[in-house]
Write a structure and sequence with these properties.
Low-confidence stretches: none
Distance between the termini: 31 Å
Pfam families: FUR
CATH superfamily of the largest domain: Winged helix-like DNA-binding domain superfamily/Winged helix DNA-binding domain
Number of strands: 6
InterPro entries: FUR, Fur_C, WH-like_DNA-bd_sf, WH_DNA-bd_sf
Protein name: Zinc-specific metallo-regulatory protein
Subcellular location: Cytoplasm
CATH topology of the largest domain: Arc Repressor Mutant, subunit A
Strand content: 15-25%
Order of helices and strands: HHEHHEEEEHEH
Family: Belongs to the Fur family.
Number of domains: 2
């Protein structure tokens, strides 16, 4: 998903296109991997002095709910990134810097065979570790 697509999703759901919303989405569009609410707050504080954590969290959860952002739990904290909309895939996530790498395999074929007569509604498969840059740091 890109900024234009994300703003269209918001508009279709009755939300106004504001500068703050665009700036939040631009932050994630440019990010290489998952980012925290704290990192977003620091970014927004430079432009919107005094912006509250509540405003940041409210928008993050709105975007997550609308499938504009996707979230994961990393080191006990929720992290967000712009939703990938191109094709079905999973991620390796660096537990130190949050960078991601696509994994173009899915274990669900095997799982579905083991869960005959069950209805699977969704799934998430992530692998955590250190990226090459963080291994040498």
């Amino acid at each position: 998903m890109n900024l234009q697509n994300a703003m269209e999703v918001l508009r279709k759901n009755g939300y106004k296109s504001t500068g703050r919303r665009k700036d939040i989405l631009t932050f994630f569009e440019k990010a290489d991997g998952y980012r925290t609410a704290k990192e977003l707050h620091q970014f927004m504080e430079d432009k919107y002095e005094g912006i509250s954590f509540d405003t940041v969290y409210r928008n993050l959860h709105l975007y997550d709910e609308m499938k504009i952002l996707e979230s994961t739990e990393l080191n006990g904290e929720k992290h967000f990134r712009m939703k990938c909309a191109t094709h079905h895939h999973h991620h390796f996530i660096c537990s130190r810097c949050g960078k991601t790498k696509e994994i173009n395999i899915c274990p669900m074929d095997e799982v579905e065979n083991k869960l005959e007569n069950y209805m699977i509604e969704d799934h998430k498969f992530e692998i955590y570790g250190l990226c090459p840059e963080c291994q040498v740091a």
